């Protein structure tokens, strides 16, 4: 049974950086860089303006990101960096573990995960959110948001990857979308920005209202809010 509280949950923003046809990487995983420098700079400002950012373990395994907000001038604070890792796959050598002086990190994993067996460090600035299973056996997203709220998070940005983004979308938890699109086409064999939503009728599709469009370098930045 979910233990998520009845109080207002943190707001959730989904950040997407894609080709014109909604792809985030080639079939072989190559993705640096989809968007241009100006768009990437705006993403760092978005990070700085959220209390926390979250990625899935696939993103950490593929890119080993730092996930900090690198702005000019430097941000006064860094967001809490959260990784959804239901299977405990992040290696102890991950950059997130060696950059705790930048800002805190939270690992959201299943309550059955043996932390001692993973070799993860136990140190100041590192949190472990032990969560029950939810969608497809992965961690429960309502319970994850409850843990985020207890950690003082009122705004969370989902950065990747496609499966985590789809899980938030399926759960009806995405309040806003910040979508950066670059003028290239990658084709159907490239990786999509969202995993499957399991829709069987168009009326069930999540619907959003465009609230802004602006050019950033060669890229287009579109903002949406849930209807």
How far the N terminus sits from the C terminus, by CA atoms, comes to 29 Å
Percentage of β-strand residues: 25-35%
User: Could you tell me the number of beta strands?
Assistant: 11
Give me the Rg, rounded: 17 Å
- Shape label: globular
List keywords for this structure.
19% helix; 5 helices; alpha/beta; 9-stranded mixed beta sheet; Dihydrofolate Reductase, subunit A; 227 residues; two-stranded antiparallel sheet
Provide an overview of this structure:
- The protein is an alpha/beta fold and 227 residues long.
- It has a single domain (11-226), classed as 3-Layer(aba) Sandwich (Dihydrofolate Reductase, subunit A).
- 19% of the residues lie in helices and 29% in strands.
- The chain has helices at 37-48, 57-63, 115-118, 141-150, 162-170; strands at residues 11-19, 23-25, 52-56, 80-84, 105-110, 126-131, 155-160, 176-182, 191-192, 208-216, 219-226.
- The strands form 2 sheets. It has a 9-stranded mixed β-sheet, with helices on both faces. Strands 2-9 form a two-stranded antiparallel ribbon.
- The longest helix is centred in the N-terminal third of the chain and has 12 residues, at 37-48.
- The chain is globular, with a radius of gyration of 17 Å.
- It starts with 10 loop residues before the first strand and ends with a strand.
Offer a concise description of the structure:
19% of the residues lie in helices and 29% in strands.
Q: Could you give the topology of this structure?
A:
Layout: E1 11-19, E2 23-25, H1 37-48, E3 52-56, H2 57-63, E4 80-84, E5 105-110, H3 115-118, E6 126-131, H4 141-150, E7 155-160, H5 162-170, E8 176-182, E9 191-192, E10 208-216, E11 219-226
Parallel strand pairs: 1-7, 1-8, 3-4, 3-7, 4-5, 5-6
Antiparallel strand pairs: 2-9, 8-11, 10-11
């Amino acid at each position: 049974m979910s233990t998520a509280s009845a109080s207002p949950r943190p707001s959730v923003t989904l950040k997407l950086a894609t080709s014109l046809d909604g792809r985030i990487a080639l079939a072989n995983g190559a993705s640096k860089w989809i968007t241009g420098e100006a768009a990437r700079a705006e993403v760092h400002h978005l990070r700085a303006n959220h209390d926390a950012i979250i990625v899935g373990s696939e993103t950490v395994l593929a890119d080993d990101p730092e996930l900090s907000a690198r702005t000019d001038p430097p941000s006064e604070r860094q967001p809490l960096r959260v990784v959804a890792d239901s299977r405990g796959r992040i290696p102890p050598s991950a950059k997130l573990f060696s950059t705790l002086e930048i800002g805190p990190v939270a690992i959201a994993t299943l309550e059955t995960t043996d932390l001692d067996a993973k070799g993860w460090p136990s140190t100041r600035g590192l949190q472990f959110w032990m969560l029950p299973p939810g969608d497809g056996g992965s961690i429960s997203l309502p319970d994850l948001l409850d843990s985020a709220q207890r950690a003082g998070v009122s705004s969370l940005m989902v950065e990747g990857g496609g499966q985590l983004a789809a899980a938030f979308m399926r759960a009806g938890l995405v309040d806003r979308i910040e979508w950066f699109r670059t003028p290239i086409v990658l084709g159907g064999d490239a990786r999509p920005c969202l995993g499957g939503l399991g829709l069987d009728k168009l009326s069930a599709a999540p619907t959003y209202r465009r609230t802004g469009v602006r050019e950033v370098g060669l890229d287009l930045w579109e903002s949406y809010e849930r209807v």
